[in-house]
């Protein structure tokens, strides 16, 4: 609280201060309530909030104004500037303005007012930010964190860092100052021990109930990066952490996924790191119930296979779509329901805003997101396990009618019909299905 008040003095006391040492957030009542069989959480990705939306990027006057403004003054400026508040099809292929960010939070609260926790898979900062924007980058993360705390004051919030989340150039490994600032921005909703680990090394764990949330930093893993010592240390830490799960169900959160990028057929990570990660997941597959990534701004998945078993699907990675519409996608967030005993996902729904239906000359400031995409229903699946998604790959490949390809494309595009080469079509879908497999070598 003191850290945010220091940098945004007008924030005030609008959210509840929680103990920084608490790892599991529970309600306190006069009686002991039986834990529910299932709980629901929110999963968010790639906000890419642009404080310059509607102005010239890098506007020096606005930049200086925002660098010296409080949290309340940021809100006052954005709420009084029409382009920042307008929600319409102009947002397609652009970073998020304040209007769509606020609308996303409003609809998250409407659909799931009391989530078990909130996962954010990285990339808070706008595209094109430079090292010279470091002060504004810090303010941007503090602003987003402050908004989330206003809407969800009691929630456990678990953020990962994306490639844009750095005081250096895009994809640069974060320095100690950024790690400290980033972790501090989310306290106390990010518990103290978790924040301390994030500050010290850039990755961490948090626990709630029988679930261990493991958050890694993919900055050291990116293809072409030269951070091998840091990558090796983190992957060793991950291996040790999974080996000592002590019966906990584990979810792993990251920004950039491993494996192949179907769009350009290149690896997301350095190959050695990707292979080591897959080997670790296969070794500890009994504990790993879900892996979550993002980065591509669209809906996707990857199945991890143990090739020693003919091959056998052993773990699932879900790649979740984004709040920003930079790739021509609809703004989206996910509500995921999971079994508290097993840690397995039993239902998931993307709520999205169909921007193409809002004319460019119409400026709407508050909307209820009514469009949904239920993963199991849209893909005609009986379940949401690694085995189910592996069967889906086979089903799509075997389908001669083209109907399953259409379902897959609709799932991937999250309801978007924009004409973009990023999206799946009949000519490219096999590349995407190949990329959806992570096989141990």
Automatic annotation (TrEMBL):
It comes from Mucilaginibacter gotjawali. One of its GO terms (cellular component) is extracellular space. InterPro entries: Calcineurin-like_PHP (IPR004843), Metallo-depent_PP-like (IPR029052). It holds the Pfam family Metallophos. This is Uncharacterized protein. One of its GO terms (molecular function) is phosphoric diester hydrolase activity.
């Amino acid at each position: 609280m003191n850290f945010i008040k220091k940098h945004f003095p007008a924030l005030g006391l609008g959210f509840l201060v929680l103990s920084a040492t608490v790892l599991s957030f529970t309600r306190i009542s006069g009686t002991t309530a039986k834990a529910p069989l299932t709980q629901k959480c929110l999963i968010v990705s790639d906000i890419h909030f642009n404080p310059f939306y509607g102005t010239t990027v890098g506007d020096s006057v606005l930049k200086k104004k925002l660098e010296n403004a409080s949290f309340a003054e940021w809100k006052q400026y954005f709420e009084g500037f029409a382009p920042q508040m307008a929600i319409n099809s102009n947002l397609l292929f652009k970073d998020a303005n304040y209007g769509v960010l606020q609308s996303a939070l409003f609809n998250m609260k409407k659909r799931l007012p009391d989530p078990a926790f909130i996962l954010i898979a990285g990339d808070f900062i706008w595209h094109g930010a430079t090292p010279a924007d470091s002060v504004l980058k810090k303010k941007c993360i503090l602003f987003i964190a402050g908004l989330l705390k206003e809407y969800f004051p009691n929630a456990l919030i678990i953020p990962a860092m994306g490639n844009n989340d750095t005081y250096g150039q895009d994809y640069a490994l974060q320095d100690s100052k950024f790690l400290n600032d980033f972790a501090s921005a989310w306290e106390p909703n990010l518990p103290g021990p978790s924040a301390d680990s994030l500050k010290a090394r850039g990755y961490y764990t948090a626990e709630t109930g029988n679930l261990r949330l493991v958050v890694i930093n993919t900055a050291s893993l990116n293809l072409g990066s030269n951070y091998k010592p840091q990558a090796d240390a983190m992957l060793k830490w991950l291996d040790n952490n999974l080996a000592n799960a002590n019966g906990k169900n584990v979810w792993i959160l990251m920004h950039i996924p491993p494996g192949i990028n179907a769009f350009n057929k290149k690896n997301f990570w350095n190959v050695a790191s990707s292979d080591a990660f897959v080997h670790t997941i296969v070794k500890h597959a009994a504990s790993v119930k879900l892996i979550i990534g993002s980065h591509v701004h669209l809906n996707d998945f990857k199945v991890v296979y143990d090739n020693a078993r003919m091959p056998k699907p052993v773990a699932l990675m879900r790649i979740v779509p984004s709040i920003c519409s930079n790739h021509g996608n609809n703004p989206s967030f996910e509500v995921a329901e999971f079994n508290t005993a097993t840690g397995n996902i039993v239902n998931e729904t993307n709520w999205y805003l169909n921007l193409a239906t809002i004319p460019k000359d119409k400026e709407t400031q508050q909307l209820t997101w009514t469009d949904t995409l239920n993963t199991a229903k849209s893909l005609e699946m009986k379940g949401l396990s690694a085995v189910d998604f592996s069967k889906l790959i086979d089903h799509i490949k075997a389908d001669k009618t083209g109907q399953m390809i259409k379902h897959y494309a609709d799932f991937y595009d999250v309801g978007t019909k924009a004409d973009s080469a990023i999206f799946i079509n009949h000519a490219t879908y096999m590349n995407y299905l190949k990329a959806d497999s992570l096989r141990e070598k």
